[in-house]
Amino acid sequence: MAHKRGVVENGGEDMIPYGKQFIDQQDIEAVVEVLKSDYLTTGPKVEEFEERLANRIGAKYVVAVANGTASLHLGALALLKKGDKVLTTPNSFVATSNAILYAGAVPVFVDIQEDGNIDLDKAIELVKKDSSIKALFGVHFSGNPLNKKKLHILKEMGVKILEDASHALGAKYKEGGEVGDCEASDITTFSFHPVKIITTAEGGAIATNDKTIYQKVKLLRTHGIKKSGEWEDNELIKGDWYYEMVELGFNYRLSELHSVLGISQLKKLDSFLKRRREIASFYDRAFKNSSFRPLYPFNPNSAYHLYVLLSDIPKKFIFEKVKKRGVSLQVHYIPINKQPYYQSLGYGDEELPKMYRYYQKAFSIPIFPSLEKEKYVVEVLKEVEDEFMRNSS
Ligand SMILES: Cc1ncc(COP(=O)(O)O)c(C=O)c1O
After folding, report:
1. Does residue 164's CB lie within 6 angstroms of at least one atom of ligand 1?
2. pLDDT classification of 7: cutoffs 50, 70, 90
3. How far is the CA of 383 from the centre of ligand 1 (A)?
4. Which CATH superfamily is domain 269-392 in?
């Protein structure tokens, strides 16, 4: 998120955003180096980024793409057929369920559990009752991993699984393994938007252990065009100029510039995670004697893309007061099924009591590796709490 200037009472300092990229001299030099090279689009850096990411997360194959939404789109096309029912979470950015719609499939919103993640026990119950449910698109919300065992159970039941790990690069399952290993899923997707764990400016990736999925996604990333391989049979276009379009694909490629930034950022992943976890642990302790409650007890396995607080104080009051003191908050997320477009499709009346209760109380506070003012964030929120208590007594 950009560093915004605001009218603030704390001496006119810059607003503290809820999330922000960390770019250093090495990142800049890596990008400049590529600018001077022969390749700006597809070249060696894309493959190197894919390889390094695959090694890090423990997946067989990684395909880098233009953004996280593109990774979900291609993932949906690789897994779904028109009309498939797909269980998903209402507590995500709209891109997760939009991808199901792109594939002509039907999102079915499942309620969340206390930690903001989709309730996988409910999902299992639903699958037992309805054989037209073909897949589940889950999100590791805030970087807190879904239960791998329960994903396994769903997979064993024949449900295709896509893990949206946009928040969760570097997170670990409590059952073992790193998010992205695809041990309990068909596909894991990532976003490298600036507020995420690492950034390539815009960027995303698809991880899978399945060669067929890998090949399909790779083909769809570049217009469905093949340039080598089974050409010899095609007399019509045999020759050095040869290319063949075999599927209706897209231009969802990630450039060399973005990829080299990704390589450079990946080298800092562990230090980013360490700092995010440090801030989360600080907030946990700092809010202990307040009415603000962390969404879940400290989890050293979470990537802490977000730090969510729950409060009974009306959000509008909190947002207005902290903004004046230079702190930006955000809400993750407005229930997707309540969005006007989804309402126009007939969604909106689902019984999702935990999601609606969560939405009443939840907001995200600043967390990013270069944050230096976490004490100030706590101070401001505690002042707002005091002010609310005084007004209401
Ligand atoms: C959970 C989730 N999925 C998907 C996306 C989409 O990623 P991108 O912005 O890279 O397209 C986001 C980004 O905000 C996200 O938070």
Report:
1. yes
2. very low
3. 33
4. Aspartate Aminotransferase, domain 1 (3.90.1150.10)
